[in-house]
Specification:
Number of helices of chain B: 13
Structural class of chain B: mainly alpha
Number of domains of chain B: 2
Shape of chain B: globular
CATH architecture of the largest domain in chain B: Orthogonal Bundle
Number of strands of chain B: 1
CATH class of the largest domain in chain A: Alpha Beta
CATH topology of the largest domain in chain A: 60s Ribosomal Protein L30, Chain: A
Largest sheet of chain A: 6 strands, mixed
Radius of gyration of chain B: 21 Å
Largest interface: A-B, 46 and 66 residues
Helix content of chain B: 55-70%
CATH superfamily of the largest domain in chain A: D-3-phosphoglycerate dehydrogenase, domain 3
Radius of gyration of chain A: 17 Å
Distance between the termini of chain A: 16 Å
Oligomer: heterodimer
Structural class of chain A: alpha+beta
Chain lengths: 221, 315
């Protein structure tokens, strides 16, 4: 079902929904997943992002998103100056990612209290995005839903504990997937829901044995 | 309601005795699970963004590539000081289309309708008519809902991106949306909306997407002009009672089919058409050479500011 405001919209700063608005959303997603103010970011542009990124302001858009700006913020063109004012360091280079969408970026971000995030994401068209890799694990989620990202140990019982908590929340699950880097390695559980998860349930999941980290991404309307 | 076909919307209009735009508004309420007030408010914000983007345009800005900027103002000045061939209204439509296309290229706030590259078509016809006929706010929102319903059907049955279907899918869809909106604003009925949409799409069928250096500038900014002019012509024809011989849903399907048959060189890859001309290639090379230089300079500039700031804090 097509949202009529995807047709008459989005309201955005130009010139390209995929190369500019989508890039801002990728930056914002990284900021949310990091959970704090970024102080440094290394960004690696792939494919069309690398080729036509500067002409489309993709670099400025990514930094704007990391700074928390929205896709319709008129300050996007001056994001480099804002980053300098706030003391956020950043660097860009070009890379060649295997099997990646043409509009992709890989980034390593460090937050104010030392949190680190490695994320690869793509801008899939019309301002839509997809997170493709998180801290070394291949994942797939769009930010079109409220999303719970649960990082846990690769042993039994974790899925049951999380779903029990979800049942308590009475929140309808739209999509759910489990991803791991290797046997016994890093595991990510991605749960996309129609309604936001109550904080108490997020906390409950965090306190289950075997759970390493829980991030709750609230969909942006 | 799924917005799968224009025919389905027209059937709902007749079945429920509601205007075209209201069927789209109610679909949005169900689809997003929001109130009527919420849906209207969001559309109002969208319309106001379009209108403001036109009002704040000065023509002073240039795009990062240097290819775009200033032509909307040139056209506005010409419209005001000379006797344009197509009369004052058409000159305003041209000026608005250029202004919005340029604003997009110059990283200003616009409404993608249905895409950022085609953002000039809708405001180019709506804003001048709004001022000329002193139209009410409510009426403009109705026109916006009408247009978005048309765009949703085209997106479902065919495509609305240059990468998927060429420029006919971007400017063509925007033109069809604008034509339907104009018919509504001039009091046309649902079947006239359908004929206007069909004629607008037919007139631009096959248009290639061939952006120079892959940027949304040449020929995109000026293609907004033809999309808007075509919308005016299609709407006037429909209001005159002229009908499309091919029904609207079949036209949309044909546009989708033509899009799929377009070679990849003519679908936003910047490998064919104007992008592949000697001048187009030269622009691309200049951009590629300038890109590295510009990026290094800007980051160096930011670092310099940062170091200065840190030094200041320590001091």
């Amino acid at each position: 079902m097509i949202d009529v405001f995807d047709i008459m919209g989005p309201i955005m700063v130009g010139p390209s929904s995929s190369h500019t608005a989508g890039a801002v959303r990728i930056g914002r997603m990284a900021r949310t997943l990091l959970g704090e103010e970024p102080v440094s970011a290394a960004l690696h542009l792939h494919g069309s992002f690398a080729e036509t990124g500067v002409g489309h302001g993709t670099d400025k858009a990514l930094i704007a998103g990391l700074l928390g700006l929205s896709p319709d913020d008129m300050d996007i063109p001056s994001s480099f100056e804002i980053a300098a004012d706030r003391g956020m360091k950043f660097s860009f280079d070009e890379t060649d990612l295997r099997d990646a969408h043409p509009n992709s970026v890989k980034m390593e971000v460090v937050g104010a209290s030392g949190h680190r995030l490695k994320m690869q994401a793509s801008s899939t068209g019309g301002g839509r995005i997809r997170v493709d890799k998180l801290d070394g694990v291949y994942v797939s989620f769009s930010g079109d839903y409220h999303t719970l990202i649960v990082q846990h140990m690769d042993n039994q019982g974790n899925l049951a504990n999380v779903t029990n908590a979800l049942a308590l929340a009475r929140v309808n699950v739209a999509n759910m997937s489990l991803h791991r880097s290797s046997k016994g390695g890093n595991v990510m559980m991605i749960i996309e829901t129609d309604d936001p998860m109550p904080d108490a349930i997020v906390e409950l999941i965090e306190k289950q044995p075997g759970i390493l980290q829980v991030i709750h991404y609230r969909r942006e309307s | 309601m799924n917005l799968d076909s224009m025919q389905e919307i027209v059937a709902a209009v007749r079945r429920e005795g509601k205007p075209f735009w209201e069927i789209i508004l109610e679909t949005d309420m169900v689809n997003r699970g929001v109130s009527r007030g919420n849906s209207l408010e969001k559309m109002s914000r969208t319309w106001h963004t379009m209108k403001e983007a036109s009002e704040v345009y000065t023509g002073d800005r240039r795009s990062l590539s240097g290819l775009s900027g200033g032509q909307g103002k040139q056209m506005r000045d010409y419209a005001a000081s000379s006797a344009p061939i197509g009369g004052e209204f058409i000159a305003q439509v041209i000026a608005e289309a250029l202004s919005m296309g340029e604003s997009n290229a110059c990283m200003r706030r616009i409404v993608a309708a249905p895409t950022a590259g085609a953002c000039g078509v809708m405001p180019a016809v709506l804003v001048p008519l709004y001022w000329r006929e002193n139209l009410s706010e409510d009426k403009m929102l109705e026109a916006m809902f009408t247009a978005s319903g048309i765009g949703a059907v085209i997106a479902y049955r065919a495509c609305i991106s240059g990468a998927a279907g060429g420029c006919q899918a971007e400017i063509g869809s925007a033109s069809a949306m604008a034509a339907g909106a104009l018919v509504h604003l001039k009091g046309g009925k649902e079947e006239q909306i359908c004929h206007a949409v069909a004629m607008a799409l037919k007139n631009l069928m096959g248009l290639a997407c061939d952006p120079v250096a892959g940027l949304v500038e040449v020929p995109c900014v000026k293609r907004n002009v033809i999309g808007a002019m075509n919308a005016v012509a299609a709407a006037d024809m429909a209001l005159a009672g002229i009908e499309s011989r091919i029904p609207v849903d079949e036209v949309i399907d044909a546009m989708g089919e033509v899009g799929r048959r377009l070679p990849v060189e003519l679908r936003e890859t910047a490998l064919g058409g104007l992008a592949a001309t000697p001048t187009g290639r030269a622009v691309k090379e200049r951009m590629a050479a300038g890109q590295k230089k510009q990026r290094t300079l800007t980051i160096k500039d930011a670092r310099w500011k940062l170091e200065k700031q840190e030094a200041g804090q320590e001091g």
